[in-house]
């Protein structure tokens, strides 16, 4: 019986092999022979896996070499590669921001280990009856193997009764394989539905398109370059089912963009944060003021990374979806984070939900977008104008002030949304949701720290420009010349502090232990003096150094912007 089934499947597989090769030859011509054979082989393997999983026991035994990438192992390419393969690899990096050649060698059905903590697997951990979700995946010119593997990982590792549908939103892709070929591939899978934008929407508006077309009351968003771990959806659904105003976020593991290896991260040890350039960051949970009794329980996060989350559809609509004035990509994660907390909801990371994600190099989504990275700034200005109140000023100072905001469109409807929802202030958010965050309003000084020598036109800067030594010409545009002097005596920017060990002056991660990083500003003589070594910061001979303090040395005098001595009393 098993042999006859094997022969039948093999015969059908050979037919598929021939038909797929013929199809590819028709589409691309004989020059693509290597790619055709590779894709056809993948189709054959996929077919065999679908037809009868028992057959794999006939085809493989314990002595067989596992397929590339199986169980999350890295794809190891030969050290010596042909010019043609090197070209394919280079093209993949340029187009996709990942090693597409390595990805194409990995089965779209590859296995991954269950990396959850045993606590997560205990019976009764989640509600016995969970609502189904519409899973929304936006893609634009995604590599075939990456996108298809994302979908199959969801279907393979999610209870079918919890998947209402998988909505693939095509943001007007131009690659041929994402048109009819994709339709034909997923047509037999009734739970997979493709929604196609008529024109480029950008990632943000494409997500809105997918959300509004979804059937289920629960929406789960997944990036198009992910693979899920068993139990991933149940853990998120449990949180949203218990409280429809909670946005549930999985712990994010890393698929290496070069080797496709699964790297299980200690993601439950981190929470979402942002700096005052309003860029997302991860921070250690050890810095949180409220400690968790059980680190595996869902825990609050002030902001989220953005691409992976589950939300109640009605609550999402109540919050005004995303700002449809946002362009393409960027700041949508922070907007949803701020307004969820400020308008009656919350946001939690769920350690028992594990989703592995490829962090692409660069932002291929923005590569051919008009304006490129400038759209992120435009979006962030809209965010600041609507949600950040007086704290928007600190973001604007990061690029020189509000006069450099640029055009950002009409935000009146978003401000009306905030008023209609009776949302709290951003200061409330800072004090109640994110008390760990550095508050620039409590800084002793912020902005440019000018040295009085050479007419006061030289500013402390880090990282310094090429061939400079920590001080360069002031430009008035924030950036690397934006500093804070805190009530704790830190000279800091972007969580890095000016540090002196008695020998070398450097900028390193702030450790909050004072010592090498504690300074005082003597306002009467305008000196920055190191508390422990009792020396003064000096700019001399085009070098930044510490010397014995001297009131008459101009290079030791510093002119601080937005200086407020009263904040010295705030600890």
From TrEMBL:
Coiled coil: none annotated. It is found in: Golgi apparatus membrane. Its main location: Golgi. The keyword Cell membrane does not apply. Its EC number is 2.4.1.-. CDD domains: pp-GalNAc-T. It is a single-pass type II membrane protein. Residues 446-561 form the Ricin B lectin domain. Keywords: Disulfide bond, Glycosyltransferase, Golgi apparatus, Lectin, Manganese, Membrane, Signal-anchor, Transferase, Transmembrane, Transmembrane helix. InterPro entries: GalNAc-T (IPR045885), Glyco_trans_2-like (IPR001173), Nucleotide-diphossugar_trans (IPR029044), Ricin_B-like_lectins (IPR035992), Ricin_B_lectin (IPR000772). The keyword Transmembrane applies. Its cofactor is Mn(2+). Pfam families: Glycos_transf_2, Ricin_B_lectin. Pathway: Protein modification; protein glycosylation. It comes from the Eukaryota. Belongs to the glycosyltransferase 2 family. GalNAc-T subfamily. This is Polypeptide N-acetylgalactosaminyltransferase.
């Amino acid at each position: 019986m098993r042999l006859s089934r094997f022969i039948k499947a093999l015969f059908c597989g050979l037919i598929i092999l021939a038909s797929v090769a013929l199809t590819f030859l028709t589409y691309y011509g004989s020059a693509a022979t290597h790619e055709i054979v590779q894709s056809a082989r993948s189709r054959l393997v996929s077919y065999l896996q679908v037809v009868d999983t028992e057959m794999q026991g006939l085809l493989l035994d314990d002595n067989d070499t596992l397929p590339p990438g199986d169980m999350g192992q890295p794809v190891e390419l030969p050290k010596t590669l042909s010019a043609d393969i090197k070209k394919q690899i280079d093209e993949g990096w340029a187009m996709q921001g990942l090693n597409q050649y390595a990805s194409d060698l990995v089965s779209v059905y590859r296995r991954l280990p269950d990396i959850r903590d045993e606590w997560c697997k205990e019976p009764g951990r989640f509600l016995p009856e969970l609502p189904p979700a519409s899973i929304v995946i936006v893609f634009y010119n995604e590599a075939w193997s990456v996108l298809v593997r994302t979908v199959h990982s969801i279907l393979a590792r999610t209870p079918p009764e919890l998947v209402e549908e998988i909505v693939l939103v095509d943001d007007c892709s131009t690659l041929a394989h994402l048109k009819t070929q994709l339709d034909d591939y997923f047509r037999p899978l009734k739970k997979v539905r493709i929604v196609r934008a008529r024109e480029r929407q950008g990632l943000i508006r494409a997500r809105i398109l997918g959300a509004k077309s979804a059937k289920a009351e629960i929406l789960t968003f997944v990036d198009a370059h992910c693979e899920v771990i068993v139990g991933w959806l149940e853990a998120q659904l449990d949180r949203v089912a218990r409280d429809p105003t909670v946005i549930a976020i999985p712990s994010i593991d890393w698929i290496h963009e070069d080797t496709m290896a699964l790297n299980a991260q200690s993601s439950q040890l981190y929470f979402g944060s942002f700096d005052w350039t309003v860029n997302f960051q991860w921070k250690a949970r050890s810095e949180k003021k409220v400690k968790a009794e059980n680190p595996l329980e869902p825990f609050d996060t002030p902001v989220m990374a953005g691409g992976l989350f589950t939300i109640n559809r009605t609550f999402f609509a109540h919050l005004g979806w995303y700002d449809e004035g946002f362009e393409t990509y960027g700041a949508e994660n922070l907007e949803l984070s701020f307004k969820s907390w400020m308008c009656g909801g919350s946001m939690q990371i769920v350690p028992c939900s594990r989703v592995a994600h490829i962090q692409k190099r660069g932002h291929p989504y923005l590569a051919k977008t008009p304006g490129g990275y400038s759209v992120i700034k435009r979006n962030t200005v809209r965010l600041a104008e609507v949600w950040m109140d007086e704290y928007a000023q600190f973001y604007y100072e990061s690029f020189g002030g509000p006069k450099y905001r640029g055009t950002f469109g009409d935000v009146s409807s978003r401000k009306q949304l905030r008023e209609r929802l009776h949302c709290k202030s951003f200061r409330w958010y800072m004090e109640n949701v994110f008390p760990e965050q550095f508050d620039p309003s409590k800084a002793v000084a912020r902005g440019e720290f000018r040295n009085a020598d050479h007419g006061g036109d030289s500013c402390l800067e880090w990282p310094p420009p090429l061939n400079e030594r920590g001080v360069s010409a002031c430009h008035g545009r924030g950036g690397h010349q934006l500093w804070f002097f805190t009530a704790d005596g830190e000279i800091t920017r972007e969580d890095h502090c000016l540090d002196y060990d008695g020998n070398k002056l450097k900028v390193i991660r702030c450790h909050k232990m004072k010592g090498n990083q504690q300074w005082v500003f003597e306002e009467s003589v305008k000196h920055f003096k190191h508390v422990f070594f009792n020396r003064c910061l000096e700019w001399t001979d085009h070098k930044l150094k510490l010397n014995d303090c001297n009131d008459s040395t101009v290079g030791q005098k510093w002119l601080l912007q937005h200086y407020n001595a009263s904040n010295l009393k705030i600890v």
